[in-house]
Amino acid sequence: MDIRLYRDSDAKGVIDLWRADEPNPSSWNDPQGSLDRKLSFQPDLLFVAEEEGRLIGTTMAGYDGHRGWIYAVVVDPDHRRKGIASSLVREAEQALQKLGCLKVNLQVRAGNNAAVELYESLGYGVEARVSMGKTLGR
Hints:
This protein is of the alpha+beta class. It has helices spanning 11-21, 31-40, 84-98, 113-121, and strands at 2-5, 46-51, 54-63, 68-75, 104-105. A five-stranded mixed β-sheet has the order 1-2-3-4-5. The chain is globular and about 40 Å long. The termini are far apart.
């Protein structure tokens, strides 16, 4: 298994992984639109896990100069529990740290206990915050 930066030839594999992970995405999380937006901003923070020429995982990160964020940690169900998600998160953390990032945030949907356990095993903790959002332009 290899963790590497995204290449243009990875588009279909990334979109397929994201669609399989969230078959009914919200309009702001449309896989093609999300990929297009990521490629237009900080594309060097989009990573894939590849095994024998097949994409089996993804993650992307962002940094605004104040906080880093990790998004879209997705591993093919047939390859879970093998350390792939951990490797993807660490790759994103290292890239953020190289940019000067001192703190990384991420969000987990309520009820996704497996994800919470993964992130806790990587040193993340639940913080006393209220997550709020607003959809723009729709």
